[in-house]
Amino acid sequence: MTTLFWTADGRYLIGADSNSVRLWNLSGTSRFVTPPLQPGMRSSLFEVTRIWLDRGGLCVASVFQTTPGQPRPVNAPPLPLSTTAATTRYALPLLTELTTTVSPPLAAYRVPEAACRIPNRSP
Asked: Fewer Cβ close by (within 10 Å): the C or N end of the chain?
């Protein structure tokens, strides 16, 4: 784990390493998530860049170096990589995915962090 912190109420310990997030409670039970990729994309590099608590949820920012996911002939030239930033909001304590916001793919490795959105609530 490269990042560890307690929730404000002291009930959960949250940790992140380079490509996953884990949550532990005081009874020793843990939950594990890997932030999602964009549909139809294959990732050659993935990194959790930051985690934080925001308005009752857990936000996980990550970057992916991706190529389109279509099958390619064995001798075809490699497709160019693009970098995509995504931020996923999870509900605590189950780490249920609520929303994922994806930035447009960019050529640079470091891209602006995507917003950690609160899900729309139906009236």
From this structure: C
Sign of CA dihedral 21, 54, 89, 7: positive
pTM above 0.85, yes or no: no
Q: How many CB atoms lie within 10 A of CB 27?
A: 6
Order of strands, edge to edge, in the sheet holding 82-91? 41-54, 57-68, 82-91, 96-102
* DSSP string for residues in 6-38: E-TTSSEEEEE-SS-EEEEETTS-EEEE-PPPP
Region of 78 please: left (phi>0), alpha (psi -120 to 50) or beta. Answer: beta
